[in-house]
Specification:
about 375 residues, alpha/beta, Rossmann fold, four-stranded parallel β-sheet, 11 helices, 13 strands
């Protein structure tokens, strides 16, 4: 609404889908369109806000833990700090389902002290001094300080998560979650995957036993959709190391304290996606990052395809530049992993050395 225009003019209309994956033609149609209409007047204000509005959608890949952060909270953090630094803002959200609001309530309330406005179910006319529609993204799991007015980094985002969840850490030694361990041995979180979803660690018990022999206290962590995030944060933030096969659950590595150890097990064909999803963010956050790339003999694909098949022999050449649904299905859904314990033991020894050093310094 422009109060300086006194004579009626034809309204200008612009439509957009406020979700940061504009290049994906199969994703964007699932995001509800928002119309911006300019004019000399507007409907009568039912509620007048003093703070500006930030409008965005959590449609698209909502429900996938990685995308909730990569396409949601990380762009939201960049946008708030770029457009509204040190200001209060009202979040107007499309597709803010009840379960999503409940799951991420601590993060949402850390972004804004105001109640969110559910754009799909609120028919009230809200008025704001200004509004921004859409979010700023710097790419996969990254913040580029050069693109922000106040040079924010990934360590600032980690501090933001600590602000959201750090006050709720479990202190009760008798808590049924059993997340509290004696601090004489470093705590290793072993991220587990459910059978049937792909990239399952087939010899998980043996890996756990090997890590315990090296000197770790090991907690097997298999997050469910119903697992409260403050509980997950309490476990991982109190640990000294984390390991897991590439997958959305490794987004929990954001809860690791800077200086702790993170090892990503990279299945065949998942080199690129492992790097862009978790390697860069881990390094930017100050973690001691290690990578264990499995060999063909450690992949279940060797039982289904010939060992001389290009798919096994040279996954990068086979995949080419296309990360198509067909390629994703082979490497991410068909494949399970059985680690070579002799080879992996050397990684565990290095992990232990770094984790013990971190524990002695930070507790």
């Amino acid at each position: 609404m422009d109060p300086t225009i006194s004579t009626p003019q034809k309204p200008k209309v612009e439509k957009l889908r406020p979700y940061p994956r504009k290049w994906e033609s199969f994703t964007m149609p699932r995001v509800k369109e928002v119309a911006l209409i300019s004019g000399p007047s507007s409907p009568k204000c039912k509620i007048q806000h003093k703070a500006p509005a930030l409008v965005f959608s959590v449609g698209g890949y909502t429900g996938n833990f990685f995308h909730d952060f990569n396409d949601g909270f990380l762009p939201l953090f960049i946008t708030v700090n770029s457009v509204y630094p040190n200001q209060d803002v009202v979040l107007m959200i499309s597709k803010a389902r009840d379960w999503w609001v409940c799951k991420y309530t601590e993060i949402i309330h850390t972004f804004s002290k105001f109640p969110i406005i559910d754009m799909d179910n609120d028919n009230t006319t809200h008025c704001f001094p200004s509004a921004s529609v859409g979010m700023i993204s710097h790419g996969f799991m990254t913040i580029d300080p050069k693109l922000t007015p106040n040079s924010i980094t990934f360590t600032h985002f980690r501090a933001f998560l600590d602000k959201a969840y750090g006050q709720n850490q479990i202190q009760n030694q008798n808590h049924p979650s059993k997340f509290i361990h004696t601090k004489s041995r470093p705590i290793l979180v072993l991220a587990s995957r459910s059978v049937g979803v792909g990239r399952v660690l087939l010899n998980q018990n043996e890996v756990k036993l090997e890590a315990e022999k090296i000197g770790f206290n090991v907690t097997v962590f298999e997050p469910r959709t119903t697992t409260p995030l403050k509980e997950s944060y309490a476990l991982i933030n109190s640990s000294h190391a984390m390991i897991g096969i590439h997958g959305a659950a490794l987004t929990h590595s954001l809860f690791l304290r800077p200086g702790s150890v993170f090892v990503q097990v990279v299945p065949l064909g998942a080199e690129w996606v492992s790097q862009v999803c978790f390697e860069k963010s881990a390094k930017d956050m100050g973690l001691v990052y290690m990578e264990y790339r499995i060999k063909a003999e450690e992949s279940s694909l060797i039982e289904k395809y010939d060992k001389d098949d290009m798919m096994i022999k040279d996954p990068v050449a086979y995949r080419g530049k296309s990360w198509s649904p067909e390629v994703m299905s082979i490497y991410l859904k068909e494949q399970n992993v059985k680690l070579d314990l002799v080879r992996f033991r050397e990684y565990l020894k290095e992990m232990y050395k770094e984790a013990k050093k971190f524990m002695d310094k930070e507790g």
